[in-house]
Every structure is written in structure tokens, then in C-alpha cells.
Amino acid sequence: MESILAGWQVTILCGIACWIYASSFLHLTQKLRSLTQPWVLARVRSDIPIILAIQRYQNGALDAFFSALSCFVSVPFYTAFLPLLFWSGHGKLARQMTLLMAFCDYMGNCVKDLVSAPRPESPPVRRVTATEDEKENALEYGLPSSHTLNTVCLSGYLLHYVLSYIQCKDASIQIAGFAIVFLLVGLIGCGRIYLGMHSLIDVIGGLGFGLTILTFWLLVHEYIDSFVVSGHNVTSFWSALTFLLLFAYPKPENPTPSFEYHTAFSGVALGIVAGVQQTYHQFHHESVPRIFTSQLSIPLYAGRVVVGISTILLVKFCSKTIAKWTLPISANALGIPIRSTNYIPALVYSPTGKKPAEAKQTGYLQKLLFFVNQDSFDVDTGIRLVQYAGLAWSVVDLVPSLFSHLRL
User: Which parts of the chain span the membrane according to its record (predicted)?
Assistant: First the structure.
């Protein structure tokens, strides 16, 4: 059993709880929005001529190129790519990029919904949404550009890891690496403007936030990794942190998919941390076989991918089903008023606005959450969190166990 939380852990959790309390009762979100939104709106409108000038060069090839490039740096791409990285033997890189991605996603979406500044108006701007993912992205607010922010952070950290891993001191290789990162970030930023998804201020904001987050992460990543693999109270602290961050998230002017995205990736981070903490010395230490070595050949790695992908898809389905069944029952037993947006029809508000019977219940646990100032809680958030936490846990715990049994 884990010991009592350390002082610094209690300080962080209490600090977030105090922020939730203060922002709820002092309406800090609305006050910050009133200070920032007018200026950003003016910038978005003034950037429209720049967007139209760039879009004069539109053609099918550029549409396809920038749309494909956006897909390769999107959150769904990273979500699919990170399990492959874990199974390749580069566990430290995989868990750091997962946690960095979760941090970027949370901070970027917080700013989006805090400012609540729209994307460039279409028309006159031509907006290209070639995939369903892009259509959902278009429903979010604009500042900052998540694609730009994520590309700066993840490509920058990947470059840092590669240069450290190969212990490169050759200036020409370092310059070439930085040039590739700069080129990728530049193409992503230009592409988001060309596709009509962002204005210039959104891209600049994404670049600025990205550089800030990357700088911060490079200062603390070794401490975070050490805590995850060998610290005390890791799972309990991360669970409490994830729970509080759900309530610390600012309420947007209008509902957007941003909160759903961050909830899913926060669940991924929780599952990764919990799984790695339990199995680090078995599957994730620095001496595990790595791809392109005799111990982990390409055919062997391909076998891992087939087994792993099949397993995590099954776990994702099962964890969602279990969560949909257990969470409403648990909330009902604890007297927590709940509602559902999509997952549970019986708890969805009717068109007349009538609340489901379950949402009228109250209990002691709800009173403990007085600082949240909500009449009811969306159970879909809990379901999504559990679903993705289960999926991530399977990536670093269940699937490596299968690899061990199958000698993969």
C-alpha cells in the first residue's frame, strides 16, 4: 500500500483545488476572457486579408499535401503512434512523449476555451476539412493552433532525445536536425493558414506556447520520469491530479470538443503512469530489447504490432462497456447527480429540458465537491477517462505480458 502523500504532492493538489474554488466563485475565467478575447478577435479579423492572399495559390495538390501533413501531426496520429514506440523498446522516449502530449493537449485546449476566440470566418476564407477529424477540429476555438503547438513540442523533444541517445557532438548533424524541425513547424503553420483553419495570430500563439512548454519540459522531464518509474504515491497522486484537472478546466463560451480531447488524453497519461509504475523493472527498463537489434528484429516487431493492436482495441471496447455499466451505479450509490451527453440514453436530457430522475439525487460526496458549483456531472467524462486509461494501461502492462508469454 502506498504511503501518505509527500508534502510537495499535497501542495500541488491543494493549489489546484484552491484555483478551482477561486475561479468558480470569483468568475476568473470570464474576467480573463473579457481582457483577452476582444484583442484576439480584432487580430483574427485583421488577418483575413493575409489568409486570402495565401489562398490565391490554392490547387488540388496543395490541398492534399497540407491536409495529409496535418493528419500526420494530429492527436489521433500520435495516439496510434505512441503504442508502437513503447513496443519498440524505447520506453523512456514513449512515456515522455505521451506525458508531454497530454500536457500540451491540456494547456493548449485550456487557452482555447478560456479565450474562446473563433477561427477565421468562412466565407470569405475557404476552409478545407478533408477528414472527419478535421471537421471536428473546426468546431474548436482557434487560439492557439494545437497542430503548431504540438509539432513544436514533440518534434523538438524528439530531436533532443535522438541527439542525446546517439551522443552526437557533430555540429553539422545538429544543425541538420534543427533545420528539419524548423521546416516541419513552418510547413505546419503555413498549412493551417492555407487550409483556412487558423489565422496568423493562432499560429504565432501556438509557436509561442509551444516553445514555452518545450523549454519548461526540458527542465523537468528527468525529474518527472524519475518520479514515474521509481517515486512514491505515483498512482494515487496522478489519479488525484487527473481528477482535479478535470474541474480546473475553464468553461468555454460555447461547448466545443476540446474538453473531450483533453479528457481522453488525460486518461491515456493516467493509464501509462499506472502501468509503467507497476511493470517498469519487468518491461520498461533501459536494458529491454530495442528494435533494429538482433534481440528485436523487424519480423518479431511486426508480430508485436499485430498482437498489440488487436489486444488494445479489445481492451478499449471492454473498458468502455464496463465503465458505462459501473459508473452510473457508483454515482447513484454515492448520491452524485449525473447526466449523459451521448453514452447512456436514459441519462440524456430530453428536448424539453427535463432532467433524468438520477440527476435529482444528492449525497455527501456531492457536498464534498461544493467548490465545483455544478448541479450535475456528465458521466460521459468519467466513461471516456476510464476507457482511455484502460487502453493505455494495456499498452504498457497487459500487452508486454502477452509478448513475454508468446516470446515476442
Answer: 6-28, 64-87, 175-194, 200-220, 227-249
